[in-house]
């Protein structure tokens, strides 16, 4: 056992036939089982059985994709488009924002002791429009700050913030 007691990371192997094998229980498991590990906060790692490559992130994305396909999705098409637009210069900003926001929600849930209750669901749904508006405002302010900084140094002169295309004789407006 390590000094912090963390030799308990569950190792899941993914085989070429797409089956997942839990080395702790010596049995095959499903994505639903891995989702339950996440929910119960049990540490695990998924690796490719042949190469040893860490596939944990890929498996988590698969679980999210399945959850988004079933029932009511968390991510609207507009939100997904917004996330895609963030890849590039603002990627770190969004990553940090989302991680902190999700951690804050988890902390509030834990403190209030209302995990998975209808009251919590109702509360979060009532807060969604406000949170979306705050995020939109934050994104707009960040975008303006970034573009103003770049324009101050003449890096993107002749480009607009809306299309990124050149406009002859036009100096994009804020």
From TrEMBL:
Coiled coil: none
Single GO biological process annotation from the record: regulation of DNA-templated transcription
Annotated PHA accumulation regulator DNA-binding N-terminal domain residues: 11-70
InterPro entries: PHA_DNA-bd_N, PHA_reg_PhaR, PHB_accumulat
Domain of life: Bacteria
Domain PHB accumulation regulatory: 75-111, 116-151
Pfam families assigned to the protein according to its UniProt record, in alphabetical order: PHB_acc, PHB_acc_N
Protein name: Polyhydroxyalkanoate synthesis regulator
Biological source species: Azotobacter vinelandii (strain DJ / ATCC BAA-1303)
Lineage: Bacteria, Pseudomonadati, Pseudomonadota, Gammaproteobacteria, Pseudomonadales
Gene field: phbF
């Amino acid at each position: 056992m390590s000094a912090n007691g963390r030799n308990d990371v569950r190792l899941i192997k993914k085989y070429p036939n797409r089956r997942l094998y839990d080395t702790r229980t010596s049995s095959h498991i499903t994505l639903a089982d891995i989702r339950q590990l996440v929910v119960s906060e049990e540490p695990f790692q998924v690796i490719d059985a042949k190469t040893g490559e860490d596939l944990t992130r890929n498996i988590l994305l698969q679980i999210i994709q399945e959850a988004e396909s079933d029932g009511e999705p968390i991510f609207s098409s507009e939100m997904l488009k917004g996330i895609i637009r963030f890849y590039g210069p603002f990627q770190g900003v969004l990553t940090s924002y989302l991680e902190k926001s999700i951690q804050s929600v988890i902390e509030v849930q834990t403190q209030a002791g209302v995990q998975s209750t209808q009251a919590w669901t109702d509360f979060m749904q009532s807060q969604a429009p406000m949170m979306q508006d705050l995020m939109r405002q934050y994104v707009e302010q960040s975008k303006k700050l970034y573009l103003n900084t770049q324009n101050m140094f003449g890096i993107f002169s002749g480009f607009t913030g809306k299309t990124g295309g050149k406009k002859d004789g036009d100096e994009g407006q804020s």
